[in-house]
Structure to design on (220 residues):
C-alpha cells in the first residue's frame, strides 16, 4: 500500500511543489491539502493519511498547536512531519516536543523530501539526528528538565535498553543498532518498543528528546 500524505501549508506554491515531488513516486500518494492547521483535524478524519507534512508557521493555527490537537483528539493519529524554512528554529523544537515525528526543510532536494516521508512512515530511524541534537542543545534546557528527568527515572531502563536509547539518540536504525550490539534486528525492535513504552514516548523522536532534556544523553 502506498504511503498516504496530507499536505498542510499556507503557501500554494509550496504545496504544489511537494505534491509534484511526492506524486512522482509509485509508493507515495498525496490524499489531500490544507492551507492552515485549523482545517486539519476534520480533513485527517476524512482522508486518513499515514503522514501529515505540515508547515510549522501558519496564520490561524500553527504546526505546534495542530500537532498537540491531533495527538490529543485522535486514537490513531498519523505521523507528523514538520516542514520549515529555518533549521535552527525554536518553533521546530516545540513542534517536536509536542509530538511531531521529524522535520524537513522547505529547501530540501526532491530525493531528501521523498526519503523523509518514507522514513517518517516507517518510524525505525531518527530523521536528521544531528539537527535534532543541535535543536536540543539550543532549546532543550541543558539536561535540566525536571519532567524529563522524572520520566526517565520512572522508566527504570535496563542496561541494554539504556544502550539502545543512546544509539537511537545518535540516529542509528534498528539494523545498525543490531550490528553494533551483535544481536538480531527483532531483538532490537523489542528493546526499542520497551524503551518507548517505559518512557511513554509516541516514537523515537520523543524518546530521544527525553534523553537529551533529562541529561541522560548530552546533545553536543
Amino acid at each position: 500500500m502506498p504511503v498516504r500524505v496530507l499536505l498542510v501549508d499556507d503557501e500554494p506554491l509550496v504545496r504544489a511543489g511537494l505534491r509534484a515531488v511526492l506524486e512522482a513516486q509509485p509508493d507515495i500518494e498525496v490524499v489531500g491539502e490544507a492551507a492552515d492547521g485549523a482545517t486539519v483535524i476534520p480533513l485527517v478524519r476524512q482522508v486518513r493519511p499515514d503522514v501529515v507534512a505540515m508547515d510549522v508557521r501558519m496564520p490561524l493555527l500553527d504546526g505546534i498547536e495542530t500537532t498537540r490537537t491531533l495527538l490529543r483528539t485522535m486514537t490513531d493519529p498519523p505521523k507528523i512531519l514538520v516542514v520549515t524554512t529555518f533549521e535552527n528554529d525554536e518553533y521546530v523544537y516545540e513542534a517536536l516536543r509536542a509530538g511531531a515525528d521529524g522535520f524537513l526543510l522547505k529547501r530540501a532536494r526532491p530525493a531528501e523530501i521523498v526519503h523523509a516521508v518514507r522514513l517518517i512512515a516507517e518510524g525505525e530511524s531518527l530523521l536528521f539526528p544531528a539537527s535534532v541534537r543541535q535543536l536540543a542543545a539550543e532549546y532543550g534546557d541543558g539536561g535540566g528538565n525536571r519532567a524529563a528527568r522524572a520520566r526517565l527515572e520512572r522508566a527504570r531502563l535496563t542496561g541494554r535498553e539504556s544502550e539502545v536509547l543512546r544509539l537511537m539518540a545518535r540516529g542509528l536504525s534498528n539494523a545498525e543498532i543490531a550490528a553494533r550490539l551483535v544481536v538480531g534486528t527483532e531483538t532490537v525492535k523489542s528493546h526499542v518498543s520497551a524503551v518507548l513504552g517505559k518512557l511513554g514516548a509516541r516514537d523515537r523522536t520523543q524518546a530521544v528528546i527525553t534523553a537529551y532534556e533529562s541529561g541522560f544523553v548530552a546533545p553536543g
About this structure: The CA atoms of residues 98 and 208 lie 13 Å apart. The chain is about 55% helix and 15% strand. Strands lie at 3-8, 28-34, 51-55, 79-84, 102-105.
